[in-house]
Write a structure and sequence with these properties.
11 helices, globular, 3 domains, Aminopeptidase, Nonspecific Lipid-transfer Protein, Chain A, seven-stranded mixed beta sheet
Length: 418
């Protein structure tokens, strides 16, 4: 019998909780109380979240695998575009190694190609597993653990105030302005916005100038010692700022917490962040030879995948690809998703792309879809891929032009968890 994939009906909520409990033991869904709570969340999402849906793979009407799909609006380089996201991929323990995950991932790619998206993304449980499926690694995330007085103390923090749920629209306006300026950022949903304020552990502070919020910070506290209850760390969950003044006053606010806070922990994709700090060293006391003290730890996470190369360039018809003029044939090797395993000729005129239906080109670029996805999102440069032997070009004299064509000054950033 042919397997079927469909949106999971509410009647299967208990089965969903059982599969998740075994696939993700860290969620600790082993008590009936926690399973019931998860079933309530599942039901709420299926009923009330129009952009988030759980889909399941059924073998003879038995749910054996599931995934959560997200309909995102993302700043794709410089254009707001539809992008698919996938999370909570889980397979029943009895049906491992039966290609359940592969079938669901294929459905995921096809689903969003039919919705005319050109890009999808995910947080991997294993990078190598998804790279084989054509996903490319995104930019790294740095985690700092610094002393509060490492942040510069500015002239003032007079514009800093605590926010509540009544300020959410002003906060969203700030986020959206940052979204439109920053590649990789994803629109917030109403529930995501509400969670910032509704979770009791969250503290939300902002820089307000007149009636406009120009930056905000969301944080919580956690114990830094099991024996000393007054020793706590501050954990920054989200930090957005639009102006140097907003940044300065928020850093002054953080600096002022030195009397009670042990360390401030934050994640950032700003590669220059350590320059801001008077002491960027963390508390690991780890020295890297010859004399480099550890400042932060770095992780690889969010991955991107182009699912329709031609549509990708059509979507970005107004984007400036390095002000370059040339005809390029992109030959994409996509062994997992055959619809995208082909060549596309793009004519760039002063950076503006258009599909060349005649197929005439000056230079051919050949590479795997995973590397192509990392490249076009700005996670790696063309010259780096060329030096690594991961891209081939038919005429090496075009290397400088191709590097400029696909160079991104700022790597993509994303604060959305899914």
């Amino acid at each position: 019998m042919i397997n079927t994939i469909q949106k999971i009906p509410l009647d299967d909520s208990a089965r969903v909780a059982t599969i998740i409990a075994s696939a993700y033991p860290g969620f600790e869904l082993f008590s009936e109380e926690k399973k019931t709570r998860f079933e309530e969340i599942f039901t709420q999402v299926q009923n009330e979240e129009p952009t988030t849906n759980y889909y399941g793979l059924y073998k003879q009407e038995n749910l054996v695998g599931l995934m959560r799909l997200h309909d995102f609006k993302m700043n794709l380089l410089s254009t707001m575009a539809d992008v698919g996201g996938i999370g909570l991929v889980a397979v029943d323990l009895l049906h491992k190694k039966e290609n359940v995950a592969k079938e669901m991932l294929t459905y995921f790619l096809t689903h969003y190609k039919e919705k005319e998206a050109s890009m999808v993304s995910l947080y991997p449980f294993r990078v190598d597993f998804y790279k084989k499926m054509g996903f490319g690694v995104g930019p790294k995330m740095d985690q700092y653990r610094v002393k509060p007085d490492s942040f510069p103390k500015g002239r003032s923090k007079e514009h800093i105030e605590r926010l509540n749920i009544n300020d959410k629209n002003e906060l969203l306006a700030c986020y959206n302005r940052y979204l439109f300026q920053t590649a990789g950022m994803i629109e917030k949903t109403e529930s995501e916005l509400n969670q910032l304020f509704n979770r009791p552990e969250n503290h939300v502070y902002a820089y307000r100038e007149g009636d406009k919020i120009l930056g905000y910070i969301v944080f919580s506290f956690k114990r830094a010692s099991t024996s000393n209850f007054v020793l706590n760390d501050m954990v920054i969950k989200e930090w957005i700022y639009e102006t140097p003044d907003a940044l300065s006053e928020m850093m002054t606010f953080l600096h002022s917490q030195a009397d009670q806070i042990n360390r401030i922990e934050l994640q950032t994709q700003d590669e220059s962040f350590h320059i801001l700090l008077s002491d960027p060293w963390n508390d690991a006391d780890h020295v890297i030879p010859p004399v480099y003290r550890e400042s932060h730890t770095t992780g690889v996470g969010l991955m991107y995948r182009v699912i329709d190369t031609e549509n990708f360039f059509r979507t970005l018809k107004d984007h400036d690809f390095g002000n370059q003029t040339c005809r390029v044939k992109f030959t994409i090797a996509d062994s997992f998703f055959s619809d995208n395993n082909r060549s596309v000729v793009v004519h760039f005129e002063k950076g503006q792309p258009s599909i060349d239906s005649l197929g005439e080109y000056e230079v051919e670029v050949s590479l795997d879809v995973s590397d192509f996805s990392s490249l076009v999102m700005g996670a790696v440069t063309f010259k780096s891929l060329f030096n690594y032997g991961l891209v081939q070009i038919s005429d090496e004299s075009y290397l400088p032009a191709l590097h400029s064509l696909l160079y991104r000054e700022q790597k993509p950033r994303c604060t959305t968890v899914f």
